[in-house]
Structure to design on (130 residues):
């Protein structure tokens, strides 16, 4: 653009320009228009790029939150199962299931023993003093 402006100034001062230089001066307005259009395109692409980055970050945050919620749900389920299994290690609960009383279903001793063994394997003992 600077070169074209120089040609234009030289032409105004009455200097002789060669054919290529004259053609370049004739296309000056077109070149300026194309440069402005290119600048606008660059701004548009830059804005779109920023919008895309924001959308990607937002999607990543949303995905992280969904993963965290899924992990919390798994942990809640594990803790609930552990709580139920730990109850099978208590004498009064075992008696209720052996007799099918107090809202408990009847469980044969063999099945109850399996549940008790499984509870001892999967549920860590708690220190009540902590």
């Amino acid at each position: 653009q600077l070169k074209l402006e120089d040609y234009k100034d030289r032409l105004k001062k009455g200097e002789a320009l060669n054919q290529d230089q004259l053609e370049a001066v004739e296309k000056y307005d077109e070149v300026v228009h194309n440069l402005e259009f290119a600048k606008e395109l660059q701004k548009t692409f830059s804005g779109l790029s920023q919008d895309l980055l924001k959308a990607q970050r937002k999607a990543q945050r949303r995905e992280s939150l969904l993963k965290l919620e899924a992990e919390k749900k798994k942990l809640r389920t594990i803790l609930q199962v552990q709580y139920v299994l730990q109850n099978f290690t208590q004498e009064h609960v075992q008696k209720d299931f052996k007799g099918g009383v107090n809202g408990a279903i009847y469980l044969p001793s063999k099945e109850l023993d399996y549940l008790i063994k499984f509870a001892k394997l999967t549920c860590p003992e708690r220190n009540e003093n902590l």
Summary: Residues 1-67 form one domain. The chain has five helices and no strands.
